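Usage

Read records sequentially. Each one opens with the input sequence:
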Amino acid sequence: MPRKHPQTHDYRLVPAAAAMWATAVAGLFLNWQSAVATGLAAGAVGFAAWRKAWWTRTCAIALLISGPVAAAWVGSNVLRAETHPLRLAANEGRGTTLTVELDTRPKGIRADGFGGQRAGVGHVIIKASTDDGARLVLLAPADKWRDLLPGQRVTAKGTLAPPRGGDLASALLRVRGPPIDPRPPPPWQTWADDHRDGLRQASAVLDDEEAGLLPALVVGDTEQMVPRIVDEFRAAGLAHLLAVSGANLAIVCGAVYLLLRKLGPRKAAGAALVALVGFVLLAGPEPSVLRAAVMGAVALLALGLGRERSAVPSLAAAVLVLVVVDPALGGDPGFALSVIATAALVLLAPRWARALKQRGVPNGVAEAVVVPTAASLVTAPVVAGLSGQVSLVSVVANLVAGPVVAPATVLGVLAAVIAPWWPGAAELLVRVAGPAVTWLVQVGRQAATVPGAAVGWPKGWTGAVALTVVVAVTVLLLRLKKTRTLIVAVLVGGFVVLVPLKVVAPDWPPAGWKVLSCDVGQGDALVLATDDADRAVLVDTGPDPGAVDRCLKTLGIKKIPLLVLTHLHADHVGGLDAVLTGRAVGAVAVGPLKEPEWAWREVNVKARAHGVRVIEPKAGERYALPGLELEVLGPRRPPVAEDGNTTVNDYSLVLKAHTRAGRVLLTGDVELAGQAALLGEPDLSAEVLKVPHHGSRYSLPAFLEAVRPRVALVSVGEGNRYGHPSPHVIDVLRSGGALVLRTDKDGDLAVLPGNRIVRRRRDGLGQVVQRSPPDRRRQRGVRVGDVAAELLGHAVAARRAQARFRFLHLRNGRRRRTRTHLPCDGDTRAPAHAGGDAGGGVRPRLGARVRRRSADRSARLARLLLQRVEARKPVAATDCGMARGRGAGRAARGGEPAPVSAHRLG
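and closes with the structure output:
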């Protein structure tokens, strides 16, 4: 007979578990004193609750005991880590050689490529411990350390550094070389590694994206994951599928229990327990796997066996045991996600499912809806704090992807088990699981392409706490009858406003765009529109496949008749595979220098895999498309067999595009030598300039003056460590009258006919439409730039500049009587007391005398600072500009005033 009232849960161990966890967090992120204070405070609350009978006796006694125990245990561990000799040596940056035992498998750190450095996993992170119990974090080269296993003892030589905090590590060891004298791993680790390798090899029968996703879905092996899939799953709220969690264990153990339940509950439970242990060994005894094992067992007992009443005490006991065994788990984000998600499945999901059933929703549909909804809502604050974004499609994406997760996981586990002994059968199982994995890929891709699928949110503790408060207040107000209508109205109103803006009538791209610079981070990706709506020419692909793919999808580009790779550096070819996938590409154009070798090899392999031919344009060739014409300007020099970054940059393909928005000069990453070679072109002028090499300081002022752009587009990554763009280059462009726009501050940049520029801000505040300034090419006066203003305001910068450059001596510093007439351009008159000077105020004696005036004082100081920047032609200051002369230190004879840049100053 069904119960009329739902069972109540037993919360007696919850305060004790919360006190243990809070003590661990305080100690890990603050110091050992904070841990002791938190634990003692919890014990005091438990004592007061016991004396005044606030709670039940068991609850108060549990809190009274756990508080002091947590204070002593966590405080001692944190104190030991902070005062260990390795911490003292790490603070001094000493080098050392240590023999350690590895605690976890090597975890790759993926880095974006730049220059000749290819994108991918270059280093690995490994947690280890020494013989005296001290914990270390090893940062080691991936190619030499990625094959090691937990339990191995190795000797590592490197440099110590302070740890980042949040764990019990005493130091970070930066390892340069290979492991020294590695010992063999334990037998069970070798067994597990063989089965993981077997699954990886069997998955190779699938496409690259599916082949990397299946091992990640089954055992958390993300080594072969395509970066594009990772970005799409994160935006869609499916990132939890890429790590081992309690869901994996529940699926495996549940499948074993259902298959063997005819043997009886005890035998079936024993078999499920064996499967649980085997899965832990297969995935590896890392803290996240052990945590998932405990949480998965709790979820299996609570939901699978229907014993809701024991779920909360079991979860609280699991938290107590795990934090006592390893206090570092208290600061692990994965631990928090597991605990919160399991609590949501235990406390919220059954209640919500019953409410749906009472309203006529079928049982299976109700559970399928409430499980992803509850898990997504309660884990959203933690996910937002970690990723800096909130997925608005996660509930729907998890609901659609949920039905195929279990079959793919079970088939993948079976393939891993039999792969070492029967590879053919393992490949057959992988092929059967292939459609399910492909479905997951398509769900993540389609969900990530929804406009506004992910909303930016502050990272860290601030973002997590803020979203927690927002969610809690919203839920609380929805529970109150007086405010429920208001909250529903606000939510519906926001939905009605945001959906038309983001989905129904998206305001990007702007109608009539002709040139668009995609915000792809520290790299280049520029799109040139044709008269066909879905057809465009792409110049470079940026470092990140996900960024350029999102940009092209937003623009609706499905056909690319020509894909130009100006040169083969990683920040220009990193997104090639994403561009070729799902689009019709006519040809890939590359320059004459095929370096670096690895990049040239990858371009050939990927182009051949997609049936696209590779061509090499020559200087002087032209390509005509509807509404677009491309002219190849360079390089004209024969290639040199060098793979240095500067050489590769100078051999970039340089194109001039003739569009309906004007001429566009595409310069790749050409530096000083490449720009000097281009100065021989009869006409370099263009309305739009893609600034060379992300605005680096290696730019010739003469080249920028020859181009004389009205709009300068700088494709640069936010907070990059290369110092791009250089303030001196920006100052030169602005002094020439160009409107300078940067992707790191302005986001995607679109150029339209009529000198209109539309930019889509990164912060999602919408577009900003503006016009480029009027053409100032004929203006001759020197414009004081940002650098001169800084030098005028900061004496320190002025002294440094004086140490690097020779100044004309300022003579007669006291104020003089101003002249009534100052000669300017074409004026042959000269005052009688000016001697033979034709420059008006510059004398041909030892140095030059500059008259001080109250008006435009900063401009005069700037002229003095800029006088010796251009070494080829000396410069003298006049009242109308800067005049070039023949002799150093002499007044310019007949020189025409001309603007001089602030390039290389300071």
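Summary fields computed downstream for this record:
- Confidence is low (pLDDT under 50) at residues 1-5, 777-906.
- The chain has five domains: 13-83, 94-185, 191-459, 471-504, 515-637+647-771.
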